[in-house]
TrEMBL record:
One of its GO terms (cellular component) is plasma membrane. One of its GO terms (molecular function) is zinc ion binding. Its EC number is 4.2.1.1. This is Carbonic anhydrase. Keywords: Lyase, Metal-binding, Zinc. The keyword DNA-binding does not apply.
Length: 292
């Protein structure tokens, strides 16, 4: 939990974790996505093993003071799509802003989406996370932007309705139900880092172009019901703006998959009900947002 300012402030992490210092290392995440990327025709859809069925293992929903984490147990893996190995799925978590601010970690042409979801997968050859963090390709993280419309996302309710209960057991459900399943071949890829301490540069990032849609009330559950302090603290503090600042790409190549539309400017402006409602038809109409 955020028991002091240094642990809560991403700009101060470098004082506690040298690998988080942005001037000492060059492959930090998150980054801004723009048209300065290279299309890679060999980057097809990833193979998401077990994502379309309900797993039988124990799932838990926890709040670690930085985010809400859904630990998903075994049975799922990610491979293909240019990844160098099979990666076992461990957990997913979220980043968000506040009641009137957006909070995705990565940005699109400098603009943030309301939220971002990360599905964390560890290379199968590693026995534990410590070993994976020593490998430049030890983790494969799938990133999904989350935008807001008026209708509830029924599948997202598996998580949002349990936020006040964390830590709690979660009922397993097919993870594919949370993802933009019709647009999984449209993504960007780059080498980066964890976006929380110890900021290890061990992540192959896959950022999907088409967002997941949730309702305003589901977003409000994150911005109002999650706290960064212990429940029995004298004064509880809502967990807001749990995203790390943007870092320069330096010499890194950002690749676009063969089906990526290279959209720009699709991220929602700061939260206003009309902004995201107008975004949805642009996306569904094949990317007209980039031409308007």
């Amino acid at each position: 939990y955020c028991y002091d300012e240094q642990h809560c402030d991403p700009y101060a992490w470098g004082d506690l974790y040298p690998s988080c210092h942005p001037l000492l290392e060059l492959h930090h995440s998150p980054i801004n996505l723009d048209h300065d990327m290279i299309r890679n025709g060999s980057l097809g859809p990833l193979h998401l093993e077990g994502f379309d069925v309900t797993q039988t293992g124990h799932w838990t929903l926890t709040n670690d003071g930085h985010s809400v984490i859904l630990q998903v147990g075994g049975g799922m893996s990610v491979s293909g799509g240019g990844l160098p190995d099979v990666y076992h799925t461990l957990q997913l978590h979220f980043h968000w802003g506040g009641p009137v601010t957006n909070g995705s970690e990565h940005t699109v042409d400098g603009r943030r989406y309301p939220m971002e979801m990360h599905v964390v997968n560890m290379k199968s050859i590693h026995p534990n996370m410590s070993a994976a963090l020593e490998d430049p390709t030890g983790l494969a993280v799938l990133g999904f932007f989350i935008d807001v419309v008026y209708a509830d996302n029924v599948h997202f309710g598996h998580i949002s309705q349990k936020l006040t209960l964390a830590p709690t057991l979660a009922v397993p459900f097919p993870l594919m139900s949370l993802l933009p399943k019709r647009n999984m071949s449209q993504y960007y890829r780059y080498d980066g880092s964890l976006t929380t301490p110890p900021c290890s540069q061990a992540v192959l990032w896959t950022l999907y172009e088409v967002p997941v849609y949730i309702s305003w009330s589901q977003l409000a559950q994150f911005t109002s019901q999650i706290f960064s302090t212990e429940e029995d603290a004298e004064q509880v503090t809502p967990l807001h703006n749990n995203f790390r600042h943007i870092h320069a790409t330096f010499s890194r190549v950002v690749s676009a998959s063969r089906d990526a539309r290279l959209l720009s400017g699709t991220a929602a402006p700061p939260l206003r009900p009309a902004a995201s409602v107008h975004l949805l038809p642009f996306v569904l109409l094949g990317g007209l947002a980039s031409k308007l």
